[in-house]
Write a structure and sequence with these properties.
Structural class: alpha+beta
Shape: elongated
Low-confidence stretches: none
Oligomer: single chain
Strand order of the largest sheet: 1-2-3
Number of domains: 2
Number of helices: 6
Length: about 180
Amino acid sequence: MHCPFCKAIDTRVVDSRLAEDGAQVRRRRECEHCGSRFTTFERAQLSMPNIVKRSGDPEPFSEEKLRRGMESAVYKRPVSAERLDHAIESIKRKLRATSDREVNSQQLGEWVMEELRDLDHVAYVRFASIYRSFEDVNAFREEIERLQTLPTAEQRRSQMSLIDPESPQTPPAPPRGVR
């Protein structure tokens, strides 16, 4: 990397550390020519899939658009910026994990609703009213009734998984001597 001070070609890494919960590498560098030190940050550049709109037209994923939609849903609600950032990162992880080049906007909307349901029920209903195009009060009522039947985020976290996601999906071998 070029030195930002003297523009020399050779700089060396003095120290490397993980930053932002392992999402970045922070590197301390020193210029071989002028001796100045500076910090750089390295982050993986992962491509996001295109989002296929209801019209069938694909468009590049826009984190800003996702953030604006979620911010309008949580407007004047007791949701911290940190929790909203975490929800957006969770949605982005799901998008990257699909390994598809295109994801339907309906799937993205469902992921947003899952995250909003865990953040704030009012924000969830606000988003659902636009996303699902509620036509009347009965649609709101039905969605609220459905929301009340679903387990809360705490209940889902406290439930024991029947399938260990880290174990292979093969049945255990029977005990010796048993057929």
